[in-house]
Amino acid sequence: MSLQKKRTLILASSSPRRQELIRTFQLPVQIEVSHVDEEYEPHTEPAEIVETLALRKALAVANNLKSQSQDGIVIGSDTIVVYDNQVLNKPLDDEDAMRMLSMLQGQTHQVFSGVACIDLKTGKQQVQHRMTEVTMRELSVEQIRRYIASGEPSDKAGAYGIQGIGARLVDSIQGCYFNVVGLPLSLLSQMLNEFEVDVL
Question: What one-character DSSP code corresponds to residue 24?
């Protein structure tokens, strides 16, 4: 079992936040960016979106590494913000960030993260998701402008990051905090158990 514990976790993500989170498992980690198309069909359910995209990322990296006869568990993840049945992706620009944050302020929205694991040795796959509810404080237009000026919203779904300055925008959450950051660690830990990788 000690050998199995040391199997490499291969994260199919360029996100610094996900990279930081997965390293908390204190297992060997390798980063391989997937570069996949993140488009999806309109009217797709949020859980299906994140599971589909997480698996797409993991498969792209797994297929590449299989040709190199590499071993390990490939992990793909995708996160979206949903408010009033609208999916809020990364903002296109500051104006788009203002639109999103104006909608979210004072309201409760959902954050979905999908996680996919693929064993390079056996080809075994597993895909799951988590949902967390986030309630934002009521914010003035000036407060939103100042937050956008910080630059933090530019590369984040829903135009905010709960682990940065954006933590000040959040009134409460119901569910997994790390899910909102972008990688639900408790879910991933449970999934890795199915691959005989025991994080604890």
Answer: G
Confidence of residue 24 (pLDDT cuts 50, 70, 90): very high
Flag whether 187 is in a domain.
yes
- Please give the residue range of the domain that contains residue 45: 2-193
Among candidate residues 37, 78, 94, 96, the one labeled active-site is: 78
Answer whether residue 199 is part of any domain.
no
Share of the chain above pLDDT 90, in %: 80
Answer yes or no: is 17 within a domain. Answer: yes
Q: Is the CA virtual torsion 9, 12, 14, 15 positive or negative?
A: negative
Q: What is the CATH number of the domain that holds 40?
A: 3.90.950.10
For the segment 117-133, what is each residue's pLDDT rounded down to a tens digit? 999 999 999 999 999 99
The residues, ordered by sequence, that sit 6+ positions from 143 with a Cβ below 8 Å of its Cβ are none
Backbone phi, psi, residue 76, to 5°:
-110, 150
**Number of compact structural domains in the chain:** 1
78 part of the active site: yes
In DSSP terms, which residues pair with 88 in a beta bridge?
81
67 domain residue, yes or no: yes
- Say how far apart CA 113 and CA 162 lie, in whole Å: 14
Residue 14 — φ and ψ, nearest 5°? -95, 0
